[in-house]
Write a structure and sequence with these properties.
Elements: H1 10-19, H2 28-38, E1 42-46, E2 52-56, E3 65-71, E4 76-82, E5 88-93, E6 105-109, E7 115-121, H3 130-134, E8 143-145, H4 151-156, E9 165-168, E10 173-175, E11 180-183, H5 186-201, E12 210-216, H6 224-233, E13 237-245, E14 265-269, H7 277-290, E15 295-298, H8 306-309, E16 318-325, E17 333-336, H9 337-353, H10 356-361
Parallel strand pairs: 3-12, 3-13, 13-16, 14-15
Antiparallel strand pairs: 1-2, 2-12, 4-5, 4-9, 6-7, 6-9, 7-8, 10-11, 11-17, 14-16
Helix pairs in contact: 1-2, 1-5, 5-9
């Protein structure tokens, strides 16, 4: 099943979105990519929080509104202080496990907008005591080293300031033989790609609803952007695309609910939302009817922009379409291109079938 009508490759879209630096609050370059790929089919607006809105050009303004949501930010870091030796003390932005941070390359944005490469450093093993070796390292013991030798050099030569945003230094690659993507920020740049791909798939379709795509800012720091997008768009229905942590490398077979190459994952519950039972059942039935591979999950942790959107506008039926990503919230993720394609197919077919009566029935 293919509804694709876009004049560009899915791979180029994913790679540009993934490679764009955009830690929470600094999503500007991600938005530039979104504008580039959607400007032909959408009227685009931006707000002060750096949320981006894609209003389908065929919208009429007198129909129910379906919102397509994804968040544009990625997990990263921020410079907290500059030490006398020139290294950078930093904080995490979004959820990290401390053990996944050291010895990786990062990019620090300086005051001129240039990205300076650095390495997350910690005390070398040669200088650690037996006690230090026996206990886990924490972020408070790490620094970012850009090669500077003093505070003055960091500030004057490298032009790095306190509060500088920092992102993993990773380029998105594609293994064509195995159809696997590897890169950073798949949470949620795969979702951003899905929003744009869905808008293109709907191009020329006569719909019973208006469609608005959104890139919401600052999801990783408290689903902040979606509180604004929901208030602005006032959707009657919402589909949330989310890069979701895969569980297929450490979970018993019977309990796997988010495996790569098995299609999108639809979650019934997480910490922030109980999914509208009627909406998710309709989506699951449609997948089986159309032969779209799909997975179901019952989550005890995590949340998405659905947490805020489903409580907006006097209540909004929301569906989270999860794109499975291995090693999410780390420097390197692994995802299957087919899972994105099936996620877009599901969203497209859902929207094509939505009527005012069906939406009201949820």
């Amino acid at each position: 099943m293919s509804n694709r009508k876009a004049p560009f490759s899915t791979l180029s879209l994913i790679q540009e979105l993934s490679n764009a630096p955009g830690v929470s609050g600094f999503e500007d370059e991600v938005l530039q990519v979104g504008r580039k790929y959607a400007q032909e089919i959408a009227s685009i607006q931006e707000d002060s929080l750096r949320n981006l809105y894609f209003y389908r050009k065929a919208n009429t303004g007198d129909k129910p509104v379906i919102m397509l949501d994804a968040h544009s930010d990625e997990v990263g870091f921020m410079v907290q202080a500059i030490k006398p030796n020139g290294t950078l003390q930093f904080i995490t932005m979004g959820g990290w496990t401390d053990s996944s941070i050291p010895a990786h390359s990062v990019l620090v944005r300086n005051s001129e907008g240039k990205y300076i490469r650095g390495v997350v450093s910690a005390k070398p093993v040669h200088f650690m005591t037996a006690e230090e070796l026996s206990r886990p390292i924490s972020v408070s013991q790490m620094t970012i080293d850009v090669g500077s030798t003093s505070y003055q050099e960091t500030v004057e030569r490298y032009k790095i300031q306190v509060a500088a945003p920092v992102v993993p230094d990773v380029a998105c690659t594609y293994d064509q033989e195995n159809e696997l993507l590897m890169g950073k920020a798949f949470d949620c740049r795969l979702g951003c790609a899905s929003v744009i791909e869905t808008l293109w798939a709907l191009e020329g379709e006569k719909l019973a609803a208006d469609v608005v795509g959104t890139f919401a800012a600052q999801e990783e720091t408290g689903v902040r952007g979606s509180k604004v997008t929901a208030n602005r768009v006032k959707p009657d229905l919402c589909i949330i695309f989310e890069g979701s942590p895969a569980d297929d490398t450490f979970t018993p077979d019977y309990a796997i609910q988010t495996a790569i190459k098995r299609g999108p994952m639809l979650r019934h519950i997480d910490q922030g939302m109980i999914t509208n039972p009627r909406f998710i059942r309709y989506a699951l039935d449609l997948c089986r009817q159309l032969g779209i591979p799909v997975q179901e999950s019952v989550r005890t942790g995590g949340s998405t922009n659905g947490a805020s959107i489903h409580l907006s506008n006097l209540g909004v039926p929301c569906l989270v379409i999860g794109l499975p990503v291995r090693y999410i919230h780390s420097h390197h993720g692994i995802a299957a291109k087919a899972d994105l394609e099936h996620s877009v197919a599901l969203a497209t077919e859902l929207i094509k079938r939505m009527t005012p009566e069906r939406i009201a029935g949820f």
